Amino acid sequence: MAAEKNPRKTYIDVLRILAILLVLYNHTNMRGYCRYALVDQPVFKFLYILMAEFCAIGVPLFFMISGDLLLGKEENLPELFKKRILRILLVLILFTGIQYVLNQILLSGEAPSFSSFFDLLLTGAAPSYWFLYAYLAFLFMLPFLRAMVKFLKPQHYLYLLILALVVNGILPLLNVVITTFSCSEYFSFPILENTLFYPLMGYFLGHEEELHFSHNTEPVEVKKTPRTTSHSSRKLAWLLLFLSLMFQTIGTYARALPLSEYSTYDKGLFTSSFTAGMAVSVFYLVRNHFSIAAQNPGSFFVSKILPTLAGLSFGIYLTERNFRQGTKEFCDMIADSTTPVLGCILWILLVYILAGAFTFLLKKLPGFRKLL
Predict the structure, then answer these.
(1) 3-state class (DSSP) for residue 134
(2) Where are the beta strands (DSSP E) in 94-232?
(3) How far apart are alpha carbons 173 and 328 in whole angstroms?
(4) Residue 188, SS3?
(5) What is the pLDDT of residues 284-332, one digit of tens each?
(6) Is 144 exposed, middle or buried (0-12, 13-18, 19+ CB in 10 A)?
(7) 3-state class percentages of the chain: helix first, strand second, coil last, to nearest 5
(8) pLDDT at 141 over 90
(9) What is d(CA 241, CA 279) in angstroms, rounded to the nearest whole number?
(10) Model-level pTM?
């Protein structure tokens, strides 16, 4: 009976797998993600920019998934701290310790000390661990977001999306294309931060057919039915995805930053501009497409394979750096004998398999299953 009331969201499993694969590509640096900076041929340069721009939605998808799953839950503050915040803190301390031992002590020969470990814990043991700190910030804000969504109507979410596209997309693009155009740095919108915007959009897209918002802003539950979407809605989602990707690519070409001026964050790409349009479109399209599969929960692939693979995503994120660094020669070997694109893709799949297998075994150990 419980399974009927709260069926597993198959599209969430698919989005988790897609998101971690995109994050893995994001970490390939000059072997994939930043290779557009080393390529002169227009076709290949365009291809690499498209791939890099699209993979920018990996982290936003994770925040949208969290918004979908967590914003509608009822938890008091002690439950939130014990069940969610404490878990991420333990993960952060544990895997910072692992990275500290592997990289600072074993590889670098640094003498272990509490102060150096504590400094590492505060600044991040691995560049990709920034997400854990951002996710902690999201969890601390969760009570406020849960209160907020009880009173938001569908038009508020639409307004929020348009705001993101204009403020983070169109205005920066104008600043690149028309060099004399600029906005005041004080013209900012805190609600468009990743830890706020994407969870809100994820909640809306995951619950738009389960809640009907009346004119008095009180949510009224309605009977759950299989998700359906009109042909026009799907076309709009595809159009938004295409335009967002094209505008970001145009912005990157127009920006034309030399390699020496790449920042650690964007690496020369016109990122975080129309990423909202891409992330929302992909979430919407995946959600509606895989709602059909969710109607057949008896399928072994849907009920066993997808949940198992999706459940490995967090562990893959935490451990992929070590497997990536240990197998980068594999990418170079394939790239030399075929093409850099194929070498990078196969490298990502290899890292996914190795980190996934390691996570699968790690979750067999007492305590790790709940952490990962």
Answers:
(1) helix
(2) 211-213, 219-221
(3) 35
(4) coil
(5) 999 988 875 555 656 777 778 899 999 999 999 999 998 998 999 999 8
(6) exposed
(7) 75, 0, 25
(8) yes
(9) 8
(10) 0.89
